[in-house]
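Question (not urgent): is this output format expected?
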Amino acid sequence: MHEYDLGKHMNMNNTAIPQVLITTLQQATHVVVFTGAGVSAESGVPTFRDAQTGLWERFDAEQLATIEAFLNDKELVWGWYEWRRMQVMRAQPNPAHLSIAALASLVPKLTVITQNVDDLHERAGSAQVLHLHGSLLSPRCFDCGQACTPPIAIPDEPAGGRRLSPPICLHCGGTVRPGVVWFGEELPVRELRRANASAKDCDLLFSIGTSSLVYPAAEIPNLAKQAGAKIVQINPEKTPLDTDATWSFRGPAGVVLPDLLSAAYPEGGCAP
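Got this back:
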């Protein structure tokens, strides 16, 4: 494994990109980009590990992300997820999201797989993103599973959000729930199946901003490596994938990815 630590530097010289990685990217026929919370964090979207604020500071985020929590206090859980949705709606795609979208026009085949529940990849221009953990923008009925239209945006809440009553399903009269995968729930079968198949088919996989701790999604880079793919990890922190990655960049994706695209495609000019 080749490790490159950017430390506190906020920009990266193209000469720091190894030529063998540039060549591997240029010759790849199928590239998979697998992203986690770290990518959205660069747009200002808090992760589960970040401190909560206002009404939510006395709650453990993981304790609100369960079926049991929703059944016990629907207004509390729905309000928290609406607060998170508003944070996402106010955020903007960052250079990492834009570079990933640009990569689609530079390689024969690109598959974007994400653990994130926002739409920043889509707003950056990526199409057909596989969302393994659902989406804050796709609520559904708790009872019948019917997809529901997200409610109108609530105003900014300086105090950190509020309790809110969830909408009623227009199809069956049941209660609408957030469209995310809670702890203890199965990942969406179709998305997981496609993600696993893509990992086994690719020749280069980027693991970006993910802790590599949340399974079964964390298994995707391992599936790619077992099938013979090269693995590029981009993360400011150490992860369990460190020992298995072919190249590991310790730094922000919004710095590394644009420089990598610029180095690999100097005339392509698609990196932000």
